[in-house]
Each structure stands twice: as C-alpha cells, then as structure tokens.
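In response to reviewer comment 3 from the previous cycle, which asked for concrete evidence that the modeling workflow produces usable outputs, we include below a single protein chain processed end to end. The sequence was submitted unchanged, and the resulting structure tokens are shown without manual editing.
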Amino acid sequence: MSFSKFSESDVFETYRAAFSIPIDWSSIFEDEIYQWLSIFEKGKNCNLSLTIPALLGLTASLSGPNTRIKGHGNGFSTSTNLYLLAVCDPGGGKSITFENVIEPVLSHIFEKTGIRIGNESYTSAGLQRHQIASKGTGIITSDEGHRFLASVNAKQAKGEAERSYLCKMWSGKGDYVELSTGSRGFQKTSMSMCIYIQPHPLMSELSNFSGADGFMDRILLVVSRPVLFPTAIVKENYELLRETGMESVKDTFYYMYLSLKEGVEYTLSEDAQSEYDGMVDSYAELLDEKYQMHLDEDENKENVNDIDIACTQTNLCMSTSKDTIHVLRLAAAIHILSEFLKATLMKVLDLNWKVEDVISLACLRRARLLYSCLARQKSIFAQVIVI
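The workflow returned the following structure tokens.
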C-alpha cells in the first residue's frame, strides 16, 4: 500500500500512535544529569525528545573513529556510530533545538580547529571527501531532513550505491584502497546522524523504500509530540540554567572531540557483560528457533518452489542482529555523554580529565529501556514501508 494514498488524518493517527509510546528520560539518565537536561529543556525551550537525539548523535560522532566498545570476551568490538531520526510535527521545536544544540557545537569546533564535522553532501564522493578532510569524524544533520531521505531514495532508484555506502559507514568502516602511488580514502569512521524530520515527509519517503539491504535496520527513530513552554517558565529556567554554569554544550563537546581523538576502548563491567551475553544468547536462540521452524514447515511441502523466504526488512522492529549492537552503542553514548556533562557541571573538565572506560550494568539497562521504546515507536512507522 502506498503512503501517498493516506490522508492527513491517517498520517496524524500513525504519528500519534508512535509518540504515545512514552520515553521516560528520567529513567535513562542519572538524577544529576536529568535535572540539568530538564532545566536546559525549559530554559532554552528545546523539547527534550529532540535535544537528546542531538546529544547522543554528537557523542557518537565525536567519540571518534578510533574508539571501540567491547561486547564479548571473544574479542568482538563495535564502533560508536548512531543513526538517529528525530520525528516531530511542524512547529514542534526542531529548528530551535538544532540552533541551540547542534549548530553551536559544529561552529565551535570549526572555529577552534578548522575542521567541519557536519556533512550535507550525501553522495558517495561527497561523503568520502568529507571523511578524508575530517579524518573519519562526522555527522549528517539537518533541521529539515526530508532532503536526505529523498536523496538516498533517488540515488537508490538510479542504481547508485549511497545506501550501501552509508550501511558500511554505520559499521565504522571507511572506503580505503592501496595504490601504487600511495593510498586513497579513509579506513575508519565515526560518522553518525541526527536528522529532524516531520511525520508526513518521513512516511512518504519510507513508503518509497525498496530493497532489503538493511539500511533502515541501522536507523533509530525518536518520535515526539510538539512541546513548547510558556514565556514565564522559559525565563525562570533560563536563570536556573545560568546558575549551573553550563548554558551551552559547545565546550563540553569540544573537549570530548579533543579528548577522544586518539580513541578509547570501552568495556562492560562484569555484571553488565553477563547481562549483555544473555541478550546475545537470547537472539541466537530466537534465530535458531525461527529457521528450525521453517525447516520443519519446508519438510512438509511437496514443491521446493513453495518455500517462503522471509524478508527481514519487512518487519524492522523484530529481533535482528542489529538489536544488540544498538543497545551496546546506546549504552556507550549514554555513558560517555553523562560523564562529560557531569565533569562540566563539576567544573573539572579539561584535557587532563579522563573519562571512565567501564560501562556499568545500570547504564546498560538504561540503554535497553531506551532501545525498547525506540523500537516500539519505529514499528508503528515501519508499517507504511512497501518492499
């Protein structure tokens, strides 16, 4: 069914069903951090469900291409890349959040280093040029993200490889070749994404997606209703924000960029590792049951041509191998962001300060809770995709 046939009321009902799945941000961050986030939200009039995707996306990007997160004792590790789409109706605060959170960080880093972290060229050539210039760090971001999805769809329709290129970059892998005259490209990347988009253009582009390359498996949706605060509340909380000494996050992220440039290896605490191993084992059992069930059904079919081949892209929010990686990366992003925000609030953040490199069980559980909410929200929108 094509989304173009949906009425405005159909669009809104889908959107409402998604944002009605609540995300309790006080359960995702420690009390000290949540208290500051709440003051920032009201003092800057920036919806928390639009602010936090920006903070997580910037954290994933500025952790750098050399940072890794260990997930198993067998040597498995993953990069920090996160692809986030923040979905909100017109007038809901997307632009003001972009202007208060993302733009100041990117501008500050450029002023200090001359390096442009933000990227608005979505072609393979444009992405490669950007990554070479930024040494593998970057974020795809916009306060009106329709152009990004439309560009990716248009390129895919022409048989071009932007989507597979973005899939590869999500895995932390660059585009690198050795030549007789030297080398070309970049080997590793922390390219991440935080794009703000309205529900209608999002659904329109999703309905035009084709192919089962796993591109949408790599994307997380954060869906929010519009939230704007009365002037009196904004004024009151802006004064409280000034008292915290952290009116902006630009210095926090500048120090993050400098501190993590060489890379850090994050590990899970012993009890967090045990719980994460259980998650991985649970998926392995589910996978085994799924294909054993298909084998049992196939044995009863007389004609091999009758065998059904399931397409993983048709049910984006069912358990996939990406689920555990999403949780691990969200845990790392929440951990790193929280550590840097706490250091800023305590006024101890400088180049001699070092971030804790062990992720706790509590942090892993916060990431699991957040991912569960995001997956449920995404499942509502996934219903409009036509393969």
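DSSP finds 13 helices and eleven strands in the chain. We consider this sufficient to address the reviewer's concern, and the full set will be provided in the supplementary archive.
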